[in-house]
Design goal:
Blueprint: H1 31-48, E1 53-56, H2 59-66, E2 81-85, E3 91-94, H3 96-105, E4 114-116, H4 131-145, E5 153-155, H5 160-168, E6 173-175, H6 177-184, H7 189-212, H8 219-232, E7 237-245, E8 266-275, E9 278-279, E10 282-288, H9 293-310, H10 319-323, E11 345-348, E12 355-360, E13 376-384, E14 391-401, E15 404-407, E16 417-419, H11 426-431
Helix pairs in contact: 4-5, 7-8
């Protein structure tokens, strides 16, 4: 059995995992070190690359590089822009009032580098206004002044008018998101401790859910319970809670409904939230009131895939070693691996749910990736009952260590557990007299 992660035993020991207050008497998560190490990794990678600069719009890349955050309402707006140049501190253009806040409360960068700016707000301002052209000219001018305009520039995610405007300035644009993915794949000690705490919050949410789950409640009521628990206990954002029960388990719809849960139902849940930016993706399957032999067998199969995959995880192993323990798509009712994608796979965790390494039977045999110490990823398995009336879904989060791997997710998942059991037969009660 894979051992649980312990921040206290790592190369950089972090005391009292699960505590959130700073103290003067022991070393806990060090946010100054977190900021410094993340920014340092970006700076070092840029120096070693052929790129002269990065232009970042993705909010997670910006947070990683600048340690700024203005709320997850900004997630899909693409109006924040960060310029990272060789030999220079990053420059961030942010919504005006946020820039002023950074100038006052974020002293790890020069105040002059926290700047107010405006974008098209995801195309809400028409292109004819010229926002994209003006921003591109400003970025290109700074790069020219730094002597970097003739070198390739990495851009992560970008709107088409913005890309065209940058290229019109003579900039040679390359993929900057893959570049950032490589940097973010190996986690620092503080990042791992935050991922561990984020998972611990979900441990507690599942305990609340287990005690609440019973026949007669609805899937969306489970979502409400989990969401409230997480926010009350320090979650920064509850991105999604998938709540799926009964016949909705097979095929997997990836979204909750208002379905009424009934006795004997299988119910599985995926809890995705963040603590200080660091996310979870954490499935558990429970039965309600009772479990049939077919439901138990489906769970056993999903657990077997999980355990066999986990046993392969160690530095130097590859993604191909892991995914060979997953069933082929045709074994559980799908035509090919593309059709079954997302049911048996692994994905990296960090400031987003989609980081490297990502492993699947779809691509990892032909394009294996080496596992390295400090990687953190989630492993997801799935198996339906023979008649398709239910299915089991399990997910574990692991950190790759020098000795193999350790487990971040701790709510019990070794077997199919049954919630909502409060029925007693008269004969059983008579035995207690």
């Amino acid at each position: 059995m894979v051992r649980p992660y312990s921040a206290a035993t790592q190369a950089v020991p972090i005391a009292s995992p699960g505590a959130t207050l700073a103290t003067d008497w022991e070393q806990r998560v060090d946010f100054a070190r977190l900021r410094t190490e993340r920014a340092g990794k970006v700076r070092a990678a840029l120096e070693e690359s052929h790129l002269g600069a990065l232009i970042l719009f993705d909010m997670n890349n910006i947070r990683y590089t600048t340690a700024t955050h203005i709320g997850n309402w900004a997630r899909d707006k693409l109006f924040r822009c960060c310029l990272v140049m060789r030999g220079h501190d990053p420059i961030l253009w942010d919504i005006g009032s946020a820039a002023r806040t950074h100038q006052r409360y974020a002293p790890w960068n020069e105040a002059a580098n926290w700047r107010a700016g405006i974008s098209s707000w995801r195309g809400s301002i028409p292109e004819e206004v010229g926002v994209e052209r003006g921003n591109a000219a400003r970025l290109a001018g700074i790069l020219r002044d730094a002597g970097l305009a003739d070198q390739p520039v990495g851009v992560d995610v970008v709107e088409l008018p913005v890309l065209r405007a940058l290229e019109a300035q003579g900039l040679h644009i390359e993929d900057g998101h893959g570049f950032m993915q490589d940097i973010r794949a190996i986690k620092t000690a503080d990042e791992i401790a935050l991922l561990d705490h984020s998972a611990a919050l979900v441990d507690g949410a599942y305990d609340e859910l287990y005690r609440y789950l019973r026949a007669g409640i609805r899937e969306n009521a489970c979502v409400a319970l989990v969401t409230r628990y997480l926010y009350e206990n320090g979650s920064e954002e509850v991105e999604a809670v998938n709540s799926i029960s009964g016949e909705r388990c097979s095929p997997h719809p990836h979204v909750f409904s208002d379905r009424l849960i009934r006795p004997g139902d299988t119910a599985y849940f995926d809890i995705i939230h963040s603590f200080n930016g660091y996310r979870t993706c954490y499935y558990r399957t429970l039965n309600v009131g009772a479990a049939s032999p077919a439901q138990c067998e489906a769970y056993r199969r999903a657990r077997e895939f999980m355990d066999n995959a986990i046993n392969e995880i160690r530095p130097g192993a590859t993604s191909a070693d892991v995914v060979r323990h997953f069933p082929a798509a045709t074994e559980f009712g799908f035509a090919d691996e593309e059709e079954a994608f997302g049911l048996q796979y692994c994905h990296g965790l960090g400031l987003s749910n989609w980081e490297r390494p990502l492993m699947s039977r779809y691509h990892s045999f032909e394009h294996p990736v080496e596992l390295k110490q400090g990687m953190v990823f989630a492993i997801e398995t799935y198996w339906p009952t023979d008649d398709g009336s239910a299915a089991a879904r399990i997910e574990e989060e692991v950190v790759v260590t020098a000795a193999g791997c350790e487990l971040l997710t701790r709510f019990p998942a070794d077997q199919l557990y049954v919630a909502g059991t409060r029925l007693f037969a008269g004969a059983d009660l008579a035995k207690t007299q």
